[in-house]
Structure formats: structure tokens, C-alpha cells
Design brief:
Length: 555
């Protein structure tokens, strides 16, 4: 057994003796000196003679016969015991603090039962639901504007012809000039000459001398060639200037619906109300076991208080005996034995102050604010009074039945201006668009002064195959090919970094074919969301048509 472990046993043995029958054992001055030795001999006889035990006992026994100077020379033993007592006292304080924390934890659990009665739950749920409702309102505003501005839609089909290759066929007879001279040897009679010429003409099938079989650039007098063509058709619908491709056998969607975010937002609020209903109904099941467990924990830790106080009194008495060595130690031993530490500050420190348990309230009706319950007129008045109906009205989710009454509570949903939660909603936004004017094959912007342009990008309409970009000073005639920046055939921009500064930006669109059916009037190449050097370009052109239209976007 180590020196510290023995010292702990010694401390408890001394406490047991002082708290018990040791007062009856003292009959003389000598008793106060030998009390500690007798306690050790009775409580730990097997340990007498071991290192720290033997030294301390010998120190106590020496108090009978030795001078004070001799007994104070064992400062190492005294120091070891003092250090152990300090450690024991610190441990008791840690146990006391743990008891206070355990009791407060149980009280917090009781209070949580009451909190569930008085308000709505997750703030995150409210934020997400509010964002869905905000997305619905925004979508409806766009939808209504679309409805107001939407003219009758035109449908048409374009046919695009693509050269896939070339096919050539050799002619049976060489297409050379006719020889009209008669045969000299032997001399050819007139009748034989005429027959020969007629046969030759029949064989040539009236092919005119010095011509090819057709106008194809690769045809000649030996081969007739023609292009192998592939034709493809696509149909489109143009509404309010914006073109959408019509895909066979697929639903025709004019624009994304606004009802989905409305339903998601209202369902989120209904789920929060349902959680409040559940917490309200389960209040008794929460409160009663929580209070019972609180009382059990308090009783457990109150029992520990008695033990801690006894240990603290023991520590104080042993410290007193250890400090008594030296002059007048016999009188000091007697004072230590007689001391009453019951009301000592370090003993009373371990008293526990038990907090009051909140009384169990009578079960009240679950009250909800009417303007926060989806499906009620109050909710519609608070959230949708300025929301237009748009193209398709949206039904509401009804969850008013979760509440017993509808009276105001503290929380009111408000618009979230600085939320970190992101909601992805597909909607349409107003865009600036351009197209060729009737009879024109370009859209032209005069920039005022000669200026460089580094990049141009557009969002092509569905029926527009490509858009060529020019930076030029020539608009009265054919634009030089050297002024071509590039051809836009994807979302990527074309770059004009190799072009010199010029006064005009010219865009020339190309349709995906020629109109073969439907209303061809007004069918022109078009594009939206034009950007110059990465910045939105919304300036009206000098030649061409500028218009506003709605395009799909996700946010």
C-alpha cells in the first residue's frame, strides 16, 4: 500500500475515532497525546511499521517522551499528509459541483415540458417555409405579367437542308462533239452517211455538245454528279416574341407552375403546428416522469451531502492534529479532539440549495394565431392579399384542425432579408431581347465612337441556329469577312480581341431552316440576354427590333 493510500486510511481512522468513542478514552493529558496512536493501532494494526504509517505513528508516540524540537524534525511526513488532505478536499468540492449540475439538468428537463406549450418550434422550419412562400409570390408576379403581355401564339415549322455528301454517275457515251465529216475511204454514200449520223444522235440522247449533264460544280462530260441532301424539320411556338421548340409526344409547358412552392411552404407551417399539437398533448407524459426523476436525483445527491460533510470534518480534525506538533502540542491535541466542526464554513459549503419545481399547470387549450394557419381567411389576408392569380390559381393546404382555438401568439412570420438558407425554384424572369427587322438580315448598334469590344454572348432563341458577331465601320454594303469576330453556336461568348476598335456592333442571326408550314410572318432570328464584355447590353439598336420577353431561370 502506497504512502498516500495509507494517509487516506489514517485520515478516516482519525475521523472515526474523534467522531466516536475517543472522548471517553481520554482520562488524562497523556490520553490526548496517545489518541492518534491508539486509533492507528486499532484501525490499521497490519500497517504499523510501513514507511509513512510507521513514521507518523512513531512521531505520535515520540510526543510522550521527546522534546518538541525532536518531534518537529519530521516535516517530510507532515508535508505528505497535508498534501493528501488538500487533494481530498478538492475532490469533495468537485463532487459537490457535479451534484449541483445534475440537479439543474433535471430542472431544465421539467421546464422544457412547459416551453412546448407556449410557442412554435424550429426557427429553421419557419425560415424555409417563408422562403417557399416568397418564391410563390415572386413566381405569381411574373406569371401575371406574362399573362397580361402574352399575345396570340404562332406555330410554325422550319425545314433545314444539310448536304451530307455527293453522288456521281458515269455517262454511257462520252459527251464529245459530233463529227459531221463523211468517210473518205471507201467513199461513203449519202444514204449511208445519213443513217450513221441518225444512229449516233440516237445514241447521244440529244446531249448538246460541249455541255455537262447538269449544273452541279463537279459534273463534267464523263460524270453526272448531285448532292446527297438530308432534310430535318422542327416546329416552334412563338408567344410574346419568345420562341419555344415544340417536341412531339411531350407535354407543352408554357412556363413553370407556381403552386409547388406555395404547397411546400404551407405544408412546412402545418408540420410545425402538428409538432406543437403533439407536444401540447404529451405535456403530462413529459412533466410527471420528469418531476419524479428530479426528486430521485435530489435524494441521491442529498445522501452524498452527509458523507461529504463527515469527510470534511475528518479532514479539518486531522489537519489540526498535524499542525499541533511543536510547542504545547499536548494541549493542542486536546483542543483538536474537543473541536466541533459541524458549523465550520468549509463543512456548510457542501449544503445543497434545491431549486423549486414549477407547478404543473392545468392543461390549457392549444392556441394558434389564425393568420399563421394555412387554409384560413386570416392567413390568406396576411400573406396573399397582393398576390395576383396569374394564369392558374393554386389551392391552399388546410391544417386548421390541429388547434383548439385561434388567438395571437408571440411569433409572426416576417420576410427574411438576410437568410442563409437557399431554396431552388424554377421561374421566368423578364429579359431584353432582339431580332431582325422584317426584310433585314442584321441588327446594328452605333456605339458613338470607335471602341474595342472583347467578347459578346447571347442566349439564342430555340429556332435560331447561330448568331454571327461583327465589329465594323461598314454598314452600307457587304460587311468584310475580316470584321467577323466569330459565330455564336453555344452559351460561350465569341471574342473580338483580334479586331480593331470600330463604330458598329453588328449581329446576324441564322434560322434553323426555312418556314415550310404555319404562320411565317414575323419569323426572324432572335436572341436574349445579350452581354458585351460580360455586362448586360440593353441598348436599343439603330437597325433591328428590341422587345421584352420572359425566359426560364433557376434560383
Amino acid at each position: 500500500m502506497t504512502m498516500k493510500l495509507f494517509a487516506m486510511h489514517l485520515a478516516m481512522a482519525l475521523f472515526a475515532c474523534v467522531e466516536g468513542s475517543e472522548l471517553d478514552m481520554r482520562s488524562s493529558m497523556q490520553t490526548s497525546v496517545t489518541l492518534a496512536t491508539r486509533v492507528v493501532q486499532r484501525e490499521a494494526p497490519a500497517l504499523i511499521g510501513d514507511d509513512l504509517t510507521g513514521q507518523f505513528v512513531n512521531l505520535l508516540q515520540a510526543a510522550h517522551t521527546q522534546a518538541p524540537a525532536q518531534t518537529t524534525g519530521n516535516s517530510g511526513v507532515v508535508s505528505s499528509i497535508s498534501n493528501l488532505l488538500d487533494s481530498m478536499e478538492l475532490k469533495l468540492q468537485e463532487q459537490h459541483n457535479a451534484s449541483l449540475a445534475a440537479i439543474q439538468h433535471e430542472l431544465d428537463h421539467i421546464n422544457e415540458c412547459s416551453t412546448n406549450l407556449s410557442g412554435f418550434g424550429s426557427t429553421d422550419t419557419r425560415q424555409t417555409s417563408q422562403e417557399y412562400l416568397d418564391a410563390y409570390k415572386s413566381c405569381k408576379s411574373v406569371e401575371e405579367e406574362y399573362r397580361k403581355n402574352m399575345s396570340s401564339c404562332d406555330e410554325y415549322c422550319l425545314e433545314e437542308v444539310t448536304v451530307k455528301g455527293m453522288h456521281c454517275v458515269a455517262v454511257d457515251v462520252e459527251c464529245s462533239a459530233l463529227s459531221c465529216d463523211p468517210i473518205d475511204e471507201p467513199p461513203e454514200a449519202l444514204k449511208a452517211y445519213l443513217k450513221r449520223m441518225i444512229a449516233q444522235l440516237d445514241q447521244y440522247e440529244l446531249i448538246v455538245p460541249s455541255t455537262s449533264c447538269n449544273t452541279h460544280g463537279s459534273s463534267n462530260q464523263t460524270h453526272c454528279c448531285e448532292d446527297v441532301l438530308e432534310k430535318s424539320s422542327k416546329c416552334f411556338k412563338r408567344c410574346n416574341g419568345i420562341v419555344h421548340e415544340l417536341v412531339p409526344d411531350e407535354p407543352k409547358i408554357e412556363m413553370p407552375g407556381c403552386c409547388a412552392p406555395k404547397q411546400q411552404g404551407e405544408q412546412g407551417l402545418c408540420k410545425e403546428l402538428a409538432a406543437l399539437r403533439e407536444a401540447h398533448d404529451n405535456y403530462g407524459a413529459c412533466y410527471d416522469p420528469a418531476v419524479a426523476h428530479f426528486n430521485s436525483v435530489v435524494a441521491e445527491h442529498q445522501a452524498q451531502v452527509k458523507s461529504r460533510k463527515a469527510q470534511q470534518r475528518s479532514i479539518l480534525r486531522i489537519e489540526c492534529l498535524v499542525d499541533a506538533f511543536g510547542p504545547d502540542m499536548k494541549a493542542k491535541f486536546a483542543a483538536c479532539v474537543d473541536a466541533d466542526y459541524t458549523n465550520h464554513a468549509t463543512v456548510l459549503f457542501f449544503e445543497l440549495t434545491i431549486p423549486a419545481v414549477p407547478a404543473k399547470p392545468d392543461k390549457e387549450a392549444l392556441t394558434c394565431p389564425a393568420d399563421q394557419i394555412p387554409g384560413t381567411p386570416e392567413f390568406a389576408a396576411a400573406n396573399y392579399v397582393d398576390v395576383p392569380e396569374g394564369i392558374t390559381p393554386c389551392s391552399s393546404v388546410n391544417c386548421a384542425s390541429v388547434c383548439d382555438e385561434t388567438v395571437p401568439l408571440t411569433w409572426k412570420p416576417t420576410a427574411l432579408l438576410n437568410s442563409t438558407t437557399t431554396t431552388t425554384t424554377e421561374s421566368q424572369v423578364l429579359s431584353t431581347c432582339f431580332k431582325h427587322a422584317t426584310g433585314k438580315d442584321t441588327v446594328v448598334w452605333y456605339m458613338g465612337t470607335a471602341m474595342p469590344v472583347h467578347s459578346v454572348s447571347v442566349k439564342r432563341s430555340a429556332d435560331t441556329k447561330s448568331v454571327s458577331v461583327y465589329l465594323t465601320d461598314v454598314i452600307d454594303g457587304p460587311i468584310p469577312e475580316a470584321d467577323l469576330c466569330g459565330e455564336i453556336i453555344s452559351p460561350d461568348p465569341v471574342h473580338c480581341t483580334s479586331q480593331t476598335a470600330a463604330h458598329y456592333v453588328v449581329l446576324k442571326g441564322k434560322l434553323r431552316g426555312t418556314v415550310v408550314s404555319g404562320n411565317a410572318a414575323g419569323v426572324q432570328p432572335s436572341w436574349c440576354d445579350m452581354k458585351l464584355d460580360g455586362a448586360s447590353f440593353k441598348i436599343a439598336p439603330d437597325e433591328g427590333v428590341q422587345f421584352s420577353g420572359y425566359t426560364y431561370t433557376s434560383r
